[in-house]
Amino acid sequence: MKRNKEKESDGSSSRSRNNICQNEISATNGATDVGVSNFDNYAVQGKGGSKGTKGFPERGGGYNISGNKISADGARKVGIHNFGNTTFTTEEDHGEE
């Protein structure tokens, strides 16, 4: 897998961007879970009392997944999926005090 980081600047700040591009992913009959998945996911836990994501640390960056060639013949779960997700939880969400 080709993966590297490039810096982007919007004039006020810079942020990192991950490149996952120009890969060839092939899966044949009966194959499953082929490709790139389940990475760069974050679970952020904070104290209760906030609404939405206020007070939680920000995650920056993004992903460039262009130019990938993906082929599947009778296969399941092929490609690029489940990445770069952030899940915010509080003690309140878990019923703890």
Automatic annotation (TrEMBL):
Segments carrying the region annotation (Disordered) are 1-37
Stretches with biased composition (Polar residues): 11-31
Which portions of the chain have biased composition (kind: Basic and acidic residues)?
1-10
**What is the name attached to this protein's record?**
Uncharacterized protein
Which species is the source of this protein? Answer: Prunus armeniaca (Apricot)
